[in-house]
TrEMBL record:
Biological classification of the source: Bacteria, Pseudomonadati, Pseudomonadota, Gammaproteobacteria, Alteromonadales
Record-listed E.C. numbers: 2.5.1.25
Protein name (Swiss-Prot/TrEMBL): tRNA-uridine aminocarboxypropyltransferase
Family as reported in the entry's similarity comment: Belongs to the TDD superfamily. DTWD2 family.
Matches recorded under Pfam families: DTW (PF03942)
SMART domains linked to this entry: DTW (SM01144)
Top-level class of the enzyme under EC nomenclature: transferase
Organism for this UniProt entry: Shewanella litorisediminis
Length: 208
């Protein structure tokens, strides 16, 4: 049976997020390299970013060839990409080392499960030489409807918000996190009671 979708936020009508979306005027561009398996995933957080940030774009792919248009645009516009990546695998990024205007900076985020994101990283050697922004979350992820394999994992939206907060200290990222919370709450409310209780009470719930 097909579901009706909101024409504005593109979420199913029963979990429409239009009244939870407040624009955030970031200067830094936020580009997501999204694994194909995440495109239609109902619990994916990256899909919220273009609804909140005018600077956000999503590029779907996995291999180096898939992201050729992204790389061409980086070069054509002389942009300064920074990869958001875990600290134990990446070089810790120093804010003073970022040159140019905020409008020339691009945050790149890998969107997928940890296993798939790691595969994407290895399939794209051009990412390895980029400056990396790594940080330790102040608190655990609020992603109650998906389980991560790492205790320090954040959703793509949470990672984007944390990264923007570091690059643009005066930026109010609360609307991003509030929209994320609304997505989670509405997904939980739409679940059958037995399923919802498993998500609320079982910290070891499975995810995909």
């Amino acid at each position: 049976m097909s579901r009706d979708f909101c024409v504005k936020c593109h979420f199913p009508i029963r979990v429409c997020l239009c009244n939870a979306i407040s624009p955030v005027a970031a200067h830094t561009r936020v580009w997501v390299l999204q694994h194909p398996s995440e495109v239609d995933h109902g619990k994916n957080s990256a899909r919220l970013l273009p609804l909140i940030l005018d600077t956000a774009r999503i590029f779907v792919g996995e291999s180096e060839a898939d992201f050729t248009p992204l790389r061409q645009q980086l070069k054509a516009e002389n942009l300064a990409p920074v990869l958001v990546y875990p600290a134990d695998d990446g070089e810790v990024f120093s804010l003073p080392s970022v040159g140019g205007q905020p409008e020339s900076r691009v945050l790149l985020l890998l969107d997928g499960t940890w296993r798939k994101a790691l595969k994407m990283y290895h399939l794209n050697p051009w990412l390895h030489s980029l400056p990396k922004l790594a940080f330790t979350p102040d608190s655990p992820s609020a992603y109650r409807i998906r389980k991560a394999s790492r205790s320090d994992s954040l959703s793509t939206l949470e990672a984007a918000a944390c990264a923007l907060a570091q690059l643009e200290p005066g930026l109010d990222i609360r609307p991003m996190l509030q929209c994320f919370d609304a997505m989670i709450s509405r997904r939980l409310e739409a679940m059958p009671e037995a399923v919802r209780q498993r998500y609320l009470t079982d910290p070891e719930r499975e995810t995909d």
